[in-house]
Each structure stands twice: as structure tokens, then as C-alpha cells.
Amino acid sequence: MSTIITPRPPLNLFEVERVPFDDNWTTIYDVPNYVIPAVGFNQEKTINTAAIISNLLLSNATALAITADIRVLDPLDVVYAITSNEEIGASGFIKVDLDKHILMTGDRLQVKGSALASGIAHLSFVLNQREQFTIL
User: Fold this and answer.
1) Tens-digit pLDDT profile for residues 22-59
2) How far apart are CA 94 and CA 87, in angstroms?
3) Do 47 and 36 contact (CB within 8 A), yes or no?
4) Residue 65 covered by a domain
5) Domain of residue 59, CATH code
6) Tell me: the pLDDT tens digits for 97-115?
7) Residue 110 belongs to some domain of the structure
């Protein structure tokens, strides 16, 4: 899990990730948390986030058809398969329907292509602070 240290985490951050992938599991996005440093009497605080996925495209950079698998790996390394053996034509692309899927802090979205695969994953999402509250 990545950690970003900042005095003011964003409320809604529109992001795009473009990551090359091959026949090994490749992390497309690792949902971060934000650490607000201690200042004066205010203690250090950690803010968890949620990534709301709006689009995932997988493009094939080879002249041969390939397949791709997509999964989520949670902070405890538990695997959640999203899809497997998605066919991508030679020099083509596919849209994988993940509309409004939510990943939480520490979750990693990963892709893996078939043997000799070479492609690019295009991920669009909104990174949002998770609501925090104290039980009294």
C-alpha cells in the first residue's frame, strides 16, 4: 500500500493510470492512504481512500491475439478474480466493464496477459476520501 504525506488530502481526485503489462501479474493501481502530519496540538491522522473505477481498457501491443486476466489483491493478499481469459485481438483493445467498482485503501488492481503478451492497461477513476467517524 502506498502512503502519501500531505497536510490536505484531496476530496475528489480524477486520475488516469496507463501501465504496460506482460505475462506476469502487474499492478495497475495500488489504492493509497494519506497521512496528515502532526501540527501543534493536532495529532497525526491517516485518511483512507476509495478508488471508484469508471473505465478499464486493455490494449494489445502485439500482432498476435492474446488473453488477459484481471484480479484484485487485498491488503492481506487475498485474491478476488474479476475476469479471466478475456480475448484481445491482434493490435486491438477491449473495455472491461468495471463501472463503479470500488477499491479501498490497500487494494491492488492487477492484470496478467497470456504467454508473450505485451499490452497497456488504461484505468480511469475517482480517488475519494473515505468517510471517517468515531463511535461514542
Assistant:
1) 999 999 999 998 898 988 888 888 888 899 998 899 99
2) 8
3) yes
4) yes
5) 2.60.120.340
6) 888 889 999 999 999 999 9
7) yes
Global pTM exceeds 0.90: no
**Contact by Cβ (8 Å): 35, 5:** yes
Enclosing domain of residue 24: 12-31+50-129
95 in a structural domain: yes
What is the spatial distance between Cα 89 and Cα 6, in angstroms, rounded to a whole number? 43
- Characterise 85 by phi-psi region: left (phi > 0), alpha (psi -120 to 50), beta (else): left
In this structure, the number of other CB atoms found within 10 A of the CB of residue 92 comes to: 13
- What's the number of domains the chain is made of? 1
Contact (CB, 8 A) for 54 and 124:
yes
